Each structure stands twice: as C-alpha cells, then as structure tokens.
C-alpha cells in the first residue's frame, strides 16, 4: 500500500441520505442519495455493500454513478424478497468523490438496512369454552421456520415502532408457545 500526503485547500464532498431503515421482505425499498461539494467541483456518487451483492434481486442505484456539478444525485433501489431476511442488517455504503485539485477527495455514508419477514395474515381469535382458538394464514415467505404465540392479560395499546420486530418485554406479553412447523396455522390457548 502506498499513502501519499498532499497539501490541499479544498474540502471533501458531503453525502446526504436517510438514516438506518428497515423493509418488509417483498417490498421495494427506494430512497435518494445526494452528494454536495462545498467547493463547487464536479462530484460523483457510487455505491457498494451487501444489498448490491445479492444473487437474487440485488440492489442498484440509478443513475450509476450519479454525477453532477456541485451536487450529484442518485436513487437507491432494492426489490427485496424473502431470501434477504436475516438477523443482521445489510450495509449499503455510498461514496462521494469530488474533482478537486491537486487530489480528489472522498466521503462515505453508511446506511444499515434490516430486511424483516412479513407477518402472518388474517389472524382470527375465536372464544370457545375456556379458551381461544387462533387461526392465521401463512405469510408470503416460503423459508419461514415457525411462529411464536404471545399472551397478555388486559388491554394493550402497544403499537410497534417502525423497524421494531418481535414482542419486547416492556409490552407485558408473555411467550406461551413456539410452533416450529411453518405449515401449522392454528393454536388453541386454554
């Protein structure tokens, strides 16, 4: 590796885009990325990272690269699917490069993207005798491994925050059953 240290009197470009985010598998994630060069030179935006390296439905930016005088813009696009669901977020890195002299300066912006599994559909709860019969329809992902059933006594006004998954302890819900068969669509809570 060779490192050159050069005196220069210009500043690197700044990159502006969303903060970390999440997306439900099967949804299309799209957001704009901007790079602004405070010294007014040409600037370009490129991107790399996990979303761009997927074998199925990789992410892409358009235009690639995003180029402009003083300001460049590109749009991140990712048609997610169920194969992208995983515990850890993906890392998308956006690189802005200016056209300054005597050297081109760069800056980076990292966005963490969590792809979450879609929830089961059409949950129904029917009281019968001393219990409640729960039924639901399978979600859109074929690679799901099962379901978790939670119970809470009393009313709950809990609404999950954006990107909040699972059922946090502060909600007062208790895990009562884990179903490890993705083809089971009912449970009796008695």
Structure, explained:
The protein has 190 residues and is mainly beta. 0% of the residues lie in helices and 47% in strands. It contains no helices and 14 strands. The strands form 4 sheets. It has a 5-stranded mixed sheet, with no helix packed on it. Strands 1-3-7-5 form a 4-stranded antiparallel sheet, with no helix packed on it. Strands 10-11-14 form a 3-stranded antiparallel sheet, with no helix packed on it.
Provide a brief overview of the structure.
The protein has 190 residues and is mainly β. The chain is 0% helix and 47% strand.
Topology:
Layout: E1 14-16, E2 21-24, E3 28-36, E4 42-49, E5 60-62, E6 66-69, E7 71-79, E8 90-98, E9 106-116, E10 121-128, E11 131-137, E12 147-151, E13 174-179, E14 186-189
Parallel strand pairs: 2-9
Antiparallel strand pairs: 1-3, 3-7, 4-6, 4-8, 5-7, 8-9, 10-11, 11-14, 12-13
Shape: elongated
User: What is the terminal separation in angstroms?
Assistant: 67 Å
Task: Give a count of the beta strands, DSSP E runs of length 2 or more.
Answer: 14
What summary fits the major beta sheet? 5 strands, mixed
> What percentage of the residues does DSSP assign to strands (E)?
over 45%
Q: Provide mean pLDDT, rounded.
A: 93
How does the helix and strand content classify structurally?
mainly beta
| Unreliable stretches covering 5 or more consecutive residues | none
**Helix content estimate:** under 10%
């Amino acid at each position: 590796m060779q490192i050159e240290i050069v005196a220069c009197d210009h500043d690197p470009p700044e990159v502006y885009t969303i903060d970390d985010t999440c997306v439900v598998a099967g949804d299309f994630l799209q957001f704009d990325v901007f790079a602004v060069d405070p010294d007014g030179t040409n600037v370009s935006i490129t991107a790399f990272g996990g979303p761009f390296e997927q074998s199925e439905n990789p992410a892409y930016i358009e235009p690639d690269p995003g180029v402009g005088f003083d300001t460049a813009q590109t749009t991140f696009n990712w048609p997610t699917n169920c194969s992208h669901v995983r515990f850890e977020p993906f890392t998308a890195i956006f690189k802005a490069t200016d056209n300054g002299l005597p050297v081109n300066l760069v800056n980076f912006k990292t966005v963490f993207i969590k792809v979450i599994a879609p929830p089961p559909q059409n949950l129904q709860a029917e009281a019968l005798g001393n219990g409640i019969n729960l039924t639901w329809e399978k979600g859109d992902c074929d690679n799901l491994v099962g379901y978790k059933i939670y119970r809470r006594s009393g009313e709950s006004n809990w609404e999950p925050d954006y990107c909040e998954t699972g059922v946090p302890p502060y909600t007062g819900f208790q895990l009562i059953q884990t179903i490890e068969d993705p083809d089971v669509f009912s449970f009796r809570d008695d």
